[in-house]
Structures are given as structure tokens and as C-alpha cells.
Design a protein that fits this description.
Layout: H1 6-14, E1 55-60, H2 67-77, E2 80-85, H3 88-97, E3 104-108, H4 112-115, E4 121-122, E5 124-125, E6 154-155, E7 179-180, E8 183-190, E9 192-194, H5 196-199, E10 218-221, H6 224-237, H7 251-266, E11 270-274, H8 277-286, E12 291-293, H9 296-304, E13 310-311, E14 318-328, H10 333-348, H11 350-356, H12 365-369, H13 374-380, E15 390-391, E16 397-399, H14 410-414, E17 417-420, H15 427-439
């Protein structure tokens, strides 16, 4: 992206080229029920008097911009938090252009090649983060377990942008250093969602997105950076072409996959192209589509309506994403101390358990486990049948006793991530080709 002018970089590469977060739908959602956490005996994370006059301003997507999280953090930490829930492209744009307008940046790792070189964020001293050494290795070394596909996955794997070379550096390091870009707090493995009652069986391959059996009943995400990767997964599964890196396609690859998409559209394979969480939920709930690009909380929302929906563990693997918290370059003194206190609190376990009840994973699962009931942990992380009904953080039943999480255990799901959300070097060309497809 270095050859783009700053103005074009922001106007085109961000506003049109990046995509909405997998959790953007949940912005500012307020729980109508009591806090569901299983809370160990503990007091506030630190003495609250020290930070009583501090207010930290957050920008980010809906995953962390939730009042339940804000209220628990303020209670434990003793300072005020201001939330500003935005789409991912807005978050990235403000992070780059308005660093004085926020203190804490809640963003995805895919966006760091855009954000961090701008100098708007300051490197995080990992020695000041108490439990940094407990982070899931996906974010540090990239090695989850020997032989896992995620170890060599394509796209913007978090390990590629996790560290910079020094305290004043904006250059990514090839391996771990003492200076991090973001501290992770949530991540997941994305796939296709489908209606088993309407399909009459299982979906086991990305290729089914283009299966003529479901002609006129499929939907694709109309956000270029994700939609093109979902299409690439389907095209590769069909054996029509292979990619050197689905998260960083060449112009020739983009030309070919776009032509395949246009052909599928002319054959009326797609019922719709959706942009928002609510659109995907409504399409699936109404039965207008039976198979589509989907996000984990959207599948949960369909289930909460009493409609069967499966997040398919497809044989080709998952598309992964991850998010974390970064620090504005303008933070210093007591406010900077408070920001590091928040990072410690974020990893301590309560937040990981809260998000875990929506299907997201914690950066330190062993800490989240302390705040989850055994049956919750077994369902979400171990892939075991639910010993009781499964309730989300907002009090809604989303699975019945005996259900098993789609895709199984943490190891089975995250270990099989084969590509990560990313911004490509040919991002501008991708946008041109995507528009060509959409208007065809």
C-alpha cells in the first residue's frame, strides 16, 4: 500500500476497501438481565482511588463497545470509560486521522498494516502487561499445536503484525519483541451458515455456495475484503483455481475469480448480497436463503428466534479474524497507567467469559474459564454436549441441553483456520473488480 497517496489511501483504501467487523452488529447493546458471570472471590483489579479522575475514550466496533463491559470495567478499575461504537472502516479512519480524539483503539489485526505505520498508536510495552506470556500462541509465535493449518495460514495472520521492532518503531517485526501493536482479547473462526431444516442434510464444503442444488437460495457478503475471500474459498474447493495467498491475491487471480463470480450471478445462483448483520439474520430466519456467508453472532441471533441454523465445520477449513486493544500515541502519565490497568483487566478473565458466551474466544482461555460454569466451558471450548441449556450473556437461550457446538472444540476450530481477514496489496484493484461483479 506504500505507493498510494495518503489522501487516496484513506478515502479509497479505507472507506470502501475495508470491511465491517464480525461484531459490528452488537454496538451499544445493553443487557436486560443480571450479569451472568460466575465471579471468583475478588475485589477490584487495583485500588480505585488512584484513577478516580481519569476517563478513557474508546473507539471500536461493537464487541467491546457494550454497556455491560463498560460498567464492569468501571466498577473494577475505578475510572470512567466513554464508548464510541463505529464500523471497522470508521474506526480505522479515525485511528489514523484523529489520534487526539481517542485513547484506546479497539481494532482488528487485519487493519494494522494501515493504522500502525501512520504513527497514531504507540507500541505497547509487553513487560507492563502482567499476563502477556499466557496469550494463546496464535498471536505471538503463530504455532497453536504441531501440524495445525493455522500455523501457516494465509492472509493477515495476527503473528505477522503483532510486534514492532522497538519502542519508537512503526515497522513490524518478524518475530516476538518487547513491543506489541495490540493486546488481543477476542477472535474466532468464520465459515458458512445454513438452514439444516430447509437443506435436508449437512453442508460440508465451501463449494456448496455455488452448488446448483441451492440455486437462487444462497447469499454472499457484499463487503469486498470478506466477500472475495469467501468466494475464493468456494472456487478453490470446486477445483476451478488455486491461490498463492487468498488474503493477498494477484491481479490475475482477482480477474479470474471475478469472472467466475459474474458467471455465477448470471446463472442466478445468488438470492442476495448482504452488508449488515441484520440483513443476514433476516434472510436466514425468513428462509429466503438456505446457505450464505455468515458471522457467528448472526447464527446465534437466528437460533435465538427459534429457527435452526448451523455454522458449518467445512472440510477446507475456516477464515479467521482477531481483534485487540491499542493505545493512542497521545496517552501519557496517569492516563497511560490507567490504560495498562485496563489491558490487565481485559485479560484477567471476566471479559473473556462474557464474550465466550457469544461464541468468541479469549486471548487467555484459562483465565476466562475461572468465570465460566463448567458446563459453559465444556460446551464452548471443549466441544462437549451441553450439560444444561446454553444461555448467552444477555439472558437468551441459544442452545438446548445435549447440543454440541458447531465445529467442536477450540483446538478443532481455531486449529483449522486456513486464511485470515486481510487488506491486500491490490486493494484498489480488488474494489474495482468487486464493483464490476456487483453491477454485472
Amino acid at each position: 500500500m506504500a505507493r498510494l497517496s495518503r489522501r487516496k489511501f484513506i478515502q479509497v483504501g479505507l472507506a470502501a476497501g475495508t470491511f465491517l467487523s464480525t461484531t459490528n452488529c452488537g454496538a451499544n447493546k445493553v443487557s436486560e438481565t443480571a450479569n451472568l458471570s460466575t465471579t471468583p472471590n475478588r475485589g477490584p483489579t487495583l485500588l480505585t482511588n488512584k484513577f478516580k479522575d481519569v476517563t478513557l475514550r474508546f473507539i471500536g466496533t461493537g464487541a467491546a463497545q457494550i454497556n455491560d463491559i463498560k460498567e464492569q470495567a468501571e466498577k473494577d478499575l475505578g475510572f470512567k470509560i466513554q464508548l464510541r461504537a463505529l464500523s471497522t472502516e470508521e474506526t480505522v479512519q479515525i485511528a489514523i486521522t484523529q489520534p487526539k480524539q481517542y485513547d484506546m483503539f479497539d481494532g482488528e489485526y487485519f487493519g494494522l498494516p494501515l493504522v500502525f505505520p501512520s504513527g497514531s498508536l504507540q507500541p505497547i510495552d509487553v513487560k507492563r502487561v502482567k499476563e502477556f506470556n499466557k496469550l494463546v500462541p496464535i498471536f505471538t509465535t503463530g504455532e497453536l499445536y504441531p501440524g495445525a493449518p493455522v500455523n501457516s495460514s494465509q492472509g493477515s495472520a495476527p503473528r505477522k503484525v503483532m510486534f514492532v521492532k522497538g519502542q519508537n518503531s512503526t515497522e513490524f517485526a518478524d518475530g516476538p519483541t518487547d513491543w506489541a501493536t495490540l493486546i488481543p482479547f477476542q477472535y474466532n473462526a468464520d465459515t458458512l451458515g445454513y438452514r439444516p431444516d430447509l437443506i435436508g442434510g449437512k453442508i460440508e464444503s465451501w463449494a456448496d455456495l455455488f452448488n446448483t442444488k441451492y440455486k437462487g437460495k444462497t447469499a454472499l457478503l457484499d463487503i469486498p475484503s470478506i466477500g472475495i475471500m469467501d468466494a475464493a474459498m468456494a472456487v478453490e474447493a470446486m477445483g476451478l483455481m488455486t491461490f498463492g495467498d487468498k488474503g493477498n491475491m494477484t491481479r490475475e487471480e482477482l480477474d479470474k475469480v471475478t469472472q467466475i463470480l459474474i458467471e455465477q450471478k448470471k446463472e442466478r445462483q445468488f438470492r442476495a448480497f448482504w452488508k449488515s448483520f441484520d440483513e443476514s439474520v433476516n434472510l436466514m430466519s425468513a428462509g429466503e436463503v438456505v446457505l450464505q456467508s455468515m458471522w457467528s453472532p448472526a447464527v446465534t441471533a437466528v437460533k435465538a428466534r427459534g429457527v435452526p441454523c448451523v455454522y458449518g465445520p467445512l472440510k477446507e477449513g475456516y477464515r479467521g479474524w482477531g481483534g485487540g486493544i491499542g493505545l493512542s500515541k497521545n496517552l501519557s502519565g496517569l492516563e497511560l497507567d490507567a490504560a495498562y490497568a485496563y489491558l490487565d483487566w481485559m485479560l484477567e478473565g471476566w471479559l473473556g467469559a462474557f464474550l465466550g458466551r457469544q461464541g468468541y474466544y479469549s486471548a487467555i482461555p484459562e483465565n476466562a474459564k475461572k468465570y465460566m460454569k463448567p458446563e459453559e466451558w465444556d460446551f464452548w471450548y471443549e466441544g462437549k454436549p451441553a450439560a444444561t441449556d446454553i444461555i448467552d450473556p444477555f439472558g437468551k437461550k441459544i442452545e438446548s441441553q445435549g447440543a454440541v457446538r458447531d465445529g467442536g472444540s477450540f483446538k478443532e476450530r481455531m486449529g483449522n483456520v486456513v486464511c485470515w481477514n486481510s487488506v491486500m496489496k491490490e486493494q484498489i484493484y480488488l474494489l474495482q473488480k468487486w464493483i464490476e461483479f456487483v453491477v454485472a
